Amino acid sequence: MTIPKRAANTVKNLDLFDRSKTLNKYEGMFLLDHGKVKSEPEKGIAEVTAILEKHEGKIAQIGKWDERKLAYEINKQKRGSYILVHFEAPGASIDEIRRDCQLSEIVSRELVLAIEGEKFPPFQTAQEMDAAHGSRDFREGGGRPRGGPGGGGGGPRREKRAEPAGATPAAGNDGES
Fold first, then answer.
1. Any residues with CB less than 8 A from the CB of 89 and at least 6 apart, and which?
2. What is the C-alpha R_g of the chain?
3. Nearest 5°: phi and psi at 80?
């Protein structure tokens, strides 16, 4: 059986363009176990760098983004250190990078986003972002209203309604034990 000339050219072109070797731009945010990197922040940066370089990643910029209280405990930690990275890597290696982050004792969570375009976005720490865009604290105006899912504005609580005159209490709610 012979392959038609048109199909043979297509196969040859696919061989020349191997997507697994094409470098794409990515921005990664890595949450590190604060207990393990508190005294040595460079240890966390070295861990993330090693994971990325192991999978042919080329780091454009890396740095500590912030240290924050977590919304909920992760691995029995209430605080976390964040590392922000701009890097280039083959598209096929991202799953391997995520897998190595899951196996790491230092990296608790990771988020890797593809960057479209020729340039990386500006590299800003949390303090620089706060200065440029205002505080992230909901209590300083803005934010969602207090008072539950329906709003309510957080006003004073309503008193319990009194029983209408002449009404009999429901069975079992007579207040006697």
1. 23, 24, 26, 52, 55, 56, 57, 58, 97
2. 28
3. -145, 150
Compute how many other C-beta atoms are within 10 angstroms of the C-beta atom of residue 113. 10
CA count, 13 A, side-chain hemisphere, 41: 12
Cα-Cα end-to-end distance for the chain: 92
pTM over 0.70: no
| Contact call for residues 82 and 32 (beta carbons, < 8 A) | yes
Domains in the chain and their CATH numbers? 20-117+124-133 (3.30.70.60)
Per DSSP, 121 falls in state P
- Alpha-carbon gap, residue 122 to 15, rounded angstroms: 36
CA separation for the pair 159, 137 (Å, rounded): 32
Cα 48 from Cα 100, distance rounded (Å): 10
Tens of pLDDT, residues 112-122: 999 888 888 88
- Look at residue 92 and tell me whether its pLDDT is greater than 80: yes
